[in-house]
Amino acid sequence: MERVPILKIGQTLFVSIQIDLQDQSVVQLQEDLAEELVATRATGVIIDITAVEIVDSFIGRMLATIGSISRLFDAETVLVGMRPAVAITLVELGLSLEGVRTALNAELGLRMLNGRS
Amino acid sequence: MADFMQTNQAKVLDRWCEVVSATMRGRMSQDELRSELADLYGLVVGAMSGANETVAGELRAALVALSRSRARSGFSPSETALAVFSLKDAVYELIADAAEMAPEYLTFSRLIDDLGLHTFEAYAETREQIIKQQAETMLELSTPVVQLWDGIIAVPLVGTLDSARTQLVMEKMLDSLLSTGSSHAVIDITGVPTVDTEVAQHLLKTVMAARLLGAQCTICGIRPQIAHTIVSLGIEFGDIATKATLADALAHALRSAGLKVGPA
Fold this sequence. Notes:
The complex is a heterodimer.
Chain A: E1 6-9, E2 12-16, H1 23-40, E3 44-48, H2 57-72, E4 76-80, H3 84-93, E5 101-103, H4 106-116
Parallel strand pairs in A: 2-3, 3-4, 4-5
Antiparallel strand pairs in A: 1-2
Chain B: H1 2-7, H2 9-22, H3 30-49, H4 53-72, H5 77-95, H6 102-141, E1 146-149, E2 152-158, H7 163-180, E3 184-191, H8 197-213, E4 216-220, H9 224-233, E5 241-243, H10 246-256
Parallel strand pairs in B: 2-3, 3-4, 4-5
Antiparallel strand pairs in B: 1-2
Helix pairs in contact in B: 2-3, 2-5, 3-4, 4-6, 5-6, 7-8
């Protein structure tokens, strides 16, 4: 099973999803992220989905769940780099990802998180 | 019959041209029409004399070409069909006295009817093609995305929003947001004639998709009557910012981008 690496940059955890997400790796990512949040006491999480071309309702829910998990550790989640096609799919699926903030790219996402702290 | 047509070619053709040109009202020159009909005539005679498949095919192709050019230059359906059917009149006038030709004339008449139908079908097909092309052109024309400021784009919507157009607008807007790195989009609906629940739903979807990308949307240009309809229908725009004019929306976008415009 492929694992998604989690990088720590300052007070932010950076997750770049560059693989075809399998259900198993998603669950693993959620666990890893929760552990990492506790260990590093990060205040922000950036999830980069630039390379994600296809989403389904499962992945949509997974993204929302990561947002909820992070909030439990008082960290804010910013989703960056969503493709237009992905956004349209999510809207059609009726998932508006409440509670997750979004930014056009990683740079703006970082600025958004730093503006908070 | 084929022999008869062959020998009387000049006479029949003259009469045919006369009948057809009466409906032309000067949209085609006499010579042009004559050469067109002469070609057709030759093919019709050829198709009648021998059961040659290639001639029949050529005849059909010629008719398709004829009805296509007629459809494009704005002839009415009956004018186009008449161009073929009037050959019957032209021939009939010549053989009206000869009773022994009647059975053959019937066969001939059936052939022309067949060709007429074929012409008509091609005509309708061409018209449909034209309509489709125009619809596509309109779709492209009507969805420009303009950059108002660094990081602010505007989408002026003109015309009725249906789901096909919404899809196109959404895709174009999201692509532009990404390519220009804009974090603010202003949707101007001054040109949208009516807003019902469906249109509102489409607008909301567009705004949601932009939000997922990480951009804010402002809707502006709601005309008084439309505001009235929106309220009567109980449509809620929720937390989406709405402004009266494009100027207000731009000011709002600039403010939220942390920019300030003042007198020079």
